[in-house]
């Protein structure tokens, strides 16, 4: 994905007012040795920081459908990353460098959103746009002065260009076949009834009527059971 973003940025820097100018675009670290070897005007885009855009992280899984709309796979959602470039112009005269930076600004300002059909390789296959921010608020852990100090070069006018691009998650899971039958409940046996034989359930109204008819006798028997020492004949004489 990173090399494809490099290709996108290089195409942008070679377009617009710089189209056909023959200006060389390099992604090397702009160190003192590199500057000494340079033999012509050029633009340097040094990738100095890569960070995930946590605010755009998605959870769960995404369903992948075929031509008939059937889910055949599930995959993890893409992850978004911010690629920060230090863009500088290199000529013999500072005024010429400023003209180059102005041309770069004019090109990038008109290409803040790059549609999928303009993106190469896997970036275009994802069907997602790429966001380009130029000279925005610097929020990285290191300042540009610290970056120049780490490179061992002299501080130059530069543009902080941040490209936010998706990175595909390659893990995919095969989905199960679609459901073609409804749910069914089968009773194998009930109270000794052989499997497959129909069971006649008693009517609830008749069951409740029988319970009410036997309730007085059940109550009387329960009372006699709670009075020890008395015989059934004594209970009958009392009644």
TrEMBL record:
Signal peptide coordinates: none
Ranges of biased composition (kind: Basic and acidic residues): 201-213, 230-239
Pfam families reported for this sequence: Pvc16_N (PF14065)
Region annotation (Disordered) ranges: 195-239
Residue ranges constituting the Pvc16 N-terminal domain according to the UniProt record: 4-181
TM annotation in the entry: none
Top-level taxon: Bacteria
The protein, known as: Pvc16 N-terminal domain-containing protein
Protein's organism: Streptomyces griseoviridis
